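Holo model, calcium ion. Inputs:
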Amino acid sequence: MQNAALARVFSEIADMLEIKEESIFRISAYRRAARALDALSEDVAAVAARGELTEIPGVGASTAQKIEEFLTTGTIGYYEELRASLPAGLTRLMTVPEVGPKTALLLHERLGIASIEELEEACRAGRVRALPRMGAKTEENILRGIEQMRRRAERLPLGQVLPHAKAIEQALRALPEVKAVSLAGSLRRMRETIGDIDLLATARRPEKVMEVFTTLPQVRRVLARGPTKSSVVLEVGVQADLRVVDPKSFGAALQYFTGSKEHNVKLREKAVRRGLKINEYGVFRVKDERRVAGGSEEEVYAALDLPWIPPEIREDQGEVELAERGALPRLIALGDIRGDLQMHTRWSDGSDSAEQMAKAAKALGYQYIAITDHSQSLKFAGGVTIEELRAHAREVKRVGERVGIAVLIGTECEVAPDGRLDYPDEVLAELDIVLAAVHSHFRMSEEEMTRRLVRAMESPHVHLVAHPTGRLLSQRESYAVNVETLIETARRTGTALEINAGPERLDLRDSQARLARERGVRLAINTDAHTRDELRYMEFGIGTARRGWVQPADVLNSLPLEALRVALRKRAGAGAPQDGPAGRPRRSRKPRPRIAAASTARRKRR
Ligand code: DGT
Ligand code: CA
Ligand code: CA
Ligand code: ZN
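Output:
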């Protein structure tokens, strides 16, 4: 399968266009295409064979043509031309988090640097600080960036791995020989990054299953093939292990290989205290080796007098103790989600129309969505002017009526470095929902950045802070910010915090989400979809939320529409005392104009 290879080519084209300072629109078109190919679970060649390339959200006529070219010739002429026009290694330099196109070019022209190793050496030797606009601090940042990159290279983001793993799971399940199959390991626990894929199965003819597994289209290389265990490397660059076990042991193996190791250690200690032994084959009585459990996970936990524990919280973070007391939380699930409160359309940097997004959301069974395009100052992402925003507000109402789903008008509003919002208060007051977000000026001190976001949250118009820490899993650490202060301010001001479900973000991350809910802050789990397909990212946000012990009552977008509207009127996250996650009393605050009334008034003025 060539999806990953093609995605790499497109993203390299985007990098090269950036070096050449080409139009931002062309650059983002290639980035979108790269993202779309990464997210595509089906073989792109199969889509091409049906002549449906342009149906992939994010793929236009011109990218479709280039995909065809790649599939027939193995490369793309335009890509080769671009490469020939630039010194080799430049785009590699740009993969370092701290190095943008301008810096890469400068490093190359002035110091002849063409590889990451050369860059590292030059920084260590203090040669980079001699260049214009650079200093010892830049060298430090670059070195840290290189180190981060090396650390990250060993693990892939969940969102990049899960679709492929599920495709494999399904392919195996479809075999008549296979009786049961399941993902295990960090993938089943929905960890944000994945070291390798663990699969378990029971089957009548293991050799046949192994043959199918090692010859799947997703497989790049076979590392080992045996009757009970095989290992392969997938095209996406991750190892996958399949174990075929005896049905008597399936539950025990699933429990063991799901982990985490820490959780398993805890269970083993519990077993020992009961005169039991637990391993991947089953639970046994020590005195006579008699098997007491093994076929199902429920059985295994029951043998230790425990209820079944959801995989996402098997981290030895207090879950075993709660299970002992029968006090496990009811974690949020995909089925609890009634809508999605952050998405982008063609009105800013998205690929689809509001109507297409609404239809796709309705197909997912949602009751409502919010259209939250970027605000006016975010020019590179097609920021929406005030005039446009008002036109959009009228349009989404019509879209909602046509499609039969509530479509709220909102904004993902830039927060200026000083904490000011990107639209005047009277404009924000007209909107159904306001998300505050930071997409620029990342390099501030922790104190300044925290103050910036605190000030935004203090606005009575801001309901929700989008991707609060700004991290990108494979590109950039979070900006410096005091998350504890953000959480405390969210509680004080009744502002919700987002768990952004975008596979590159997962922001807040699991542990931060847990802290937020413990402090009584409301959360919203949003996809930040830029295409209608990306609405499916919700499952990654749910996984992260579950890892953070988040429950339905903690989540703004698990509310039915009417209750959501009430919560937004009072300001998001401030729910009535009895329904707030921690039953905290609500602070008094400036009254907020009713949305409907405000927009009617507006229409009359126009
Ligand atoms: P990963 O692959 O690094 O993302 O993380 P995991 O959790 O999938 O780890 P992996 O693939 O090394 O092993 C899968 C599971 O097998 C792990 O979660 C727990 C279990 N396991 C592996 N090694 C040990 C061990 O030495 N002791 C115990 N108790 N369990 C182990
Ligand atoms: Ca694993
Ligand atoms: Ca493994
Ligand atoms: Zn954003």
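The radius of gyration is 26 Å. The chain has four domains: 3-152, 156-244, 249-324, 340-573.
Archived with the compound record.
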